[in-house]
Write the structure tokens for this entry.
Amino acid sequence: MHLESTSSADSLTGCLGRARDVLAPLRLVRAEIFMLSLPMVRSFRSAYGRSASRKRLIVLKLEDQEGVAGWGEAPIAERPVYCPDTAESTWSALADLLVPAVLGRQFSGPADLASSWADVIGQNYAKNAVESAAWAIASGKLDVPLAKLLGGVRDAVPVGESFPICDSLGALLTEVDARISEGFGRIKLKIAPGWDVAAVSAVRERFPGVPLSVDANCGYSPGGGPWRQLDDHGLVMIEQPFAADALIEMSQLQQTLRTPLCLDESASSCNTTRTALRLGAGRIVNIKPPRLGGLLPSLAVHDLCAAQQVPAWCGGTLETGIGRGFNLALASLPGFTLHADMSPARMFYERDLVDPTFDVGLNGCIAVPTRPGNGFPVVPERVAGYAIRRWTSDTSQ
Ligand code: OSB
Ligand code: MG
């Protein structure tokens, strides 16, 4: 069920090199960091547990000396379960480490800027926020949409929805039904012990033709699990059955299944992804800029997958329209051959931070933003309105 890709070998595997060469001289003169508390319209339940009714999230605004601004987002989770970063660790990495290291310096472009933290390990959500804000500035200054700068080849991205664990099968089916009528083209069910085979069977029975996958978020222990039954349902993939570092166990499981396993938490860097693929721990890769620490590392994984003909897709971490703008630009690249997790912010948040925001069309796609800079216009008053803490370079220097 791979989507058509019509690009040459070079445009498939040379995306990182081309993005590194993007010249957009920039000197950052001002930075603002906001810790937000966003009211959620529903809780999101996965193998990691249930999200709180408000979500903390960090957004960052960088300003170039010519007055061009770019926003970035760190869509951190309440607890360090999906990745090691937390709200406080990301705040500190931004305010104490990464932002002071780039302020006032002259860079030839986003890749040059990102090289200033080449020796820093971890802090991926913070790195992604700074790097993506720099890309928004570069795109704005060059007056070229980000998707184009990154080598995007499609103007719309086919999307699916990630369905949290529900209180009942009836509630799940009602929700799946609603999303399918809105146009979403792939169903991904969050699974955990106690919410797996029955949920998959129910959705399969009611919607037999819809591409269906599951995401276990590391929730099972090697040795048991519902894999054999799930393997009979023709799933597009089984995402991350075991812990991130259980590569040998995932490889052993993959050998017993026809369904491809997909690496999410395990694909924590380009090198680790290469190792996991070599071991046969998965046959599909979920690419997410916050998990990988930026758009450039995401392009590295994109190129790796393209070179090995491994299907890749753009995952999400409940971003607002700020982060989704970058994800959409990334997902327009030729190696992204499976539906993206890209539900509009209305699914989670009372109000998006961008206006106009985006939505899925009845063709099952979301249009790739064509506006240079941040793909969607950020509303500073909304950011300020949700802020519970604020840092600005004006007072820190
Ligand atoms: O595992 O894909 C995941 C959200 C937060 C952290 C991890 C994951 C998710 C999702 C949501 O599944 C997907 C989305 O943002 O639409
Ligand atoms: Mg996942």
Observations:
- Confidence is low (pLDDT under 50) at residues 1-6.
- The longest strand covers residues 26-39.
- Residues 302 and 335 are 6 Å apart (CA to CA).
